[in-house]
Amino acid sequence: MVDIARTLFFPGLPAAGASRDCTSETPGVRAGLIAASLLFLALFLLAPLAAVFAQALSAGFGAWAAALVEPDALSAIRLTLLVAVIAVPLNCVFGLAAAWAAAKHEFRGKAFLISLIDLPFSVSPVIAGLIYVLLFGAGSAIGPWLSAHGVQVLFAVPGIVLATVFVTVPFVARELIPLMQAQGTTEEEAALSLGASGWRTFLRVTLPNVKWGLLYGVLLCNARAMGEFGAVSVVSGHIRGMTNTMPLHVEILYNEYNFQAAFAVASLLALLALVTLVLKTALEARLGGGAPGRVR
Amino acid sequence: MEVRIEAVAKDFDRHPALHEIDLAIASGELAALVGPSGSGKTTLLRLIAGLETPGRGRILFGEEDASRLSVQARRVGFVFQHYALFRHMTVLENVGFGLSARPRALRPARAEIDRRARELLELVQLGGLEKRYPPQLSGGQRQRVALARALAIEPRVLLLDEPFGALDAQVRRDLRRWLRELHDRTGHTTVFVTHDQEEALELADRVVVMSQGRIEQAATPDEVYDRPATAFVHGFIGESSRLPVRVEGGEVFLDDRPTGLRADWEGPAELFFRPHQALVGDGAGGLAGMVTGGRRIAGVRRVELELGAAHRRVEVDLPLAQSCAPGTLLAFRPTAFRLYPLAGEGRPADRAPARQLAHG
Ligand SMILES: Nc1ncnc2c1ncn2[C@@H]1O[C@H](COP(=O)(O)OP(=O)(O)OP(=O)(O)O)[C@@H](O)[C@H]1O
Ligand SMILES: [Mg+2]
């Protein structure tokens, strides 16, 4: 358990006993520090996680499964997947385009663009949701026009997708910009001079060079897209079986004192987080391990 | 394919990297671009390749105006200084890239591409390494893969940016000789950039010396070494010593003292001579300097001298057997030298004719 925790949470730490590092702490101090952080992690991360699963399975495996296949839960799962399937590819396209622009070209306002990408990280998700209420609500300029034409943005899937896209904007771009900047443009120039078209150069040279970084960004983006609560909560309208995503569904069940079902759905989200964590660690090892593509 | 560069200029953010450049490279010629860092060598090469667009002027491939062609359409083989191999492709895929990137109608079959790539790898003596990835190769091997990759598209012009820059001296010498042989066999019009003047003199049919975005001289290695067109070229190519002098009534003066040298000239000038072009010893007459040090260079002893109150430094060669302790006074006289006129503020005039004078 301790060793798993070490590799999960401290991928950079050398394995116990294998180190003879040059920092000056005595072994006692080091053991104390490690014990303290493990205790902290156990208390604030592992214990709650364990509690989620314990609650979810408190009425047995059958009840857990039943809570998941119940129609409203299934609809929430379906909506969550739909939102992720739309938001993640959009984020990929935007992230690649922005990273390409930032890393391979010089233009005015580049620094501004790069810091603008971070905006969703610094804005509270609730605000992100409210922005769309202001933009598309009944009191806005285009809201009435849209509803007159039968387009429902708020309290419907489009609004949820928009809010999710907003909060996930930085993930892929943040990952790719430094990577592409470090790789420079000479490989692309070589491909062009060899006669490859711009599009082919992108597909055969640029994309393979950033594929691990892209995957890493997609992974984090996906986790956020499926787990987002605040922004989605504002624009969703909480219509059961219609506009509830998994996190919203959990909240509703919880507010109805249906703890077992709430935790059963929550356990799915927790599983997603764990899988993400494991994949992320694997990818980090790959990204850190020299030139990507060296190992097949 | 003949390459003609006509009045080409290039600015980066209004900072000129190349002033108007004119240069013609004959078909099948091997030309070297040399010059100090920042003189515009890479910029000129990238302009020929189409990786930069000229601010003014045009570039002709034969009779065709290449300035209107895209990078892809120019069909130029470019070898980058740091190889720029595709790191996620095998050596074979790297070399075959140019062929497989052709539009479908012109693309050879997969097997044919592989066959051609293998052939080229044999040509650059890398048979057997097809399956490797670039990080698994040595510097010299990567360089040759880059060359094979550039040759695969049957380029009209081959451009190499400091092809041996990152390699150690021994590998450099081998590759240099090998590149010359390859060039003689394939006959590509080739332009390569180098920091190493020795490399340029040994390898090239023609040496193009650049400084501050201008071409100082473009001529055969012998011409550039024996008759440098400008003071800059004289100082940059080969070893030389320089002395500020004044010529009055056909006689050369250094610090108002006669040197015993005569020249067909009037006014201030810079005098250049090479270490081996000096007669040294008692009775050599003319100039004298205090020995401050010396070192052995292959078969001769090169001695540093300090002249006059201004402590001007020059170097002359002595036979190995002849030793001379620091502090001794040594008389010498250049047997051949060149004068370059000074324009204002003691700067050598850019393109004024030089005078060479030899004494028996
Ligand atoms: N992309 C660029 N943006 C701005 N200035 C540039 C750019 N590329 C080159 N320069 C400038 O143009 C001038 C010529 O550069 P260039 O790279 O051609 O020199 P070089 O002769 O190849 O030098 P080196 O021997 O160091 O490679 C330099 O002053 C350089 O700073
Ligand atoms: Mg350069």
TrEMBL record, chain A:
It is a multi-pass membrane protein. Pfam families: BPD_transp_1. Keywords: Cell inner membrane, Cell membrane, Membrane, Sulfate transport, Transmembrane, Transmembrane helix, Transport. The keyword Hydrolase does not apply. GO terms for molecular function: ABC-type sulfate transporter activity. Residues 77-280 form the ABC transmembrane type-1 domain. GO terms for cellular component: plasma membrane. InterPro entries: CysW_permease, MetI-like, MetI-like_sf, Sulph_transpt2. It is found in: Cell inner membrane. The chain crosses the membrane at residues 33-57, 77-100, 112-135, 155-173, 214-239, 259-279. The keyword Transmembrane helix applies. Part of the ABC transporter complex CysAWTP (TC 3.A.1.6.1) involved in sulfate/thiosulfate import. Probably responsible for the translocation of the substrate across the membrane. The complex is composed of two ATP-binding proteins (CysA), two transmembrane proteins (CysT and CysW) and a solute-binding protein (CysP). This is Sulfate transport system permease protein CysW.
UniProtKB/TrEMBL annotation, chain B:
GO terms for molecular function: ABC-type sulfate transporter activity; ATP binding; ATP hydrolysis activity. GO terms for biological process: quaternary ammonium group transport. The keyword NAD does not apply. It holds the Pfam family ABC_tran. Coiled coil: none annotated. InterPro entries: AAA+_ATPase, ABC_SmlMolc_Importer, ABC_transporter-like_ATP-bd, ABC_transporter-like_CS, P-loop_NTPase, Sulph_transpt1, TOBE-like. SMART domains: AAA. The keyword Cell membrane applies. PROSITE patterns: ABC_TRANSPORTER_1 (PS00211), ABC_TRANSPORTER_2 (PS50893). Keywords: ATP-binding, Cell membrane, Membrane, Nucleotide-binding, Sulfate transport, Translocase, Transport. One of its GO terms (cellular component) is ATP-binding cassette (ABC) transporter complex. Residues 3-237 form the ABC transporter domain. Gene3D superfamilies: P-loop containing nucleotide triphosphate hydrolases. This is Sulfate transport system ATP-binding protein. It comes from Albimonas pacifica. The lineage of its organism: Bacteria, Pseudomonadati, Pseudomonadota, Alphaproteobacteria, Rhodobacterales.
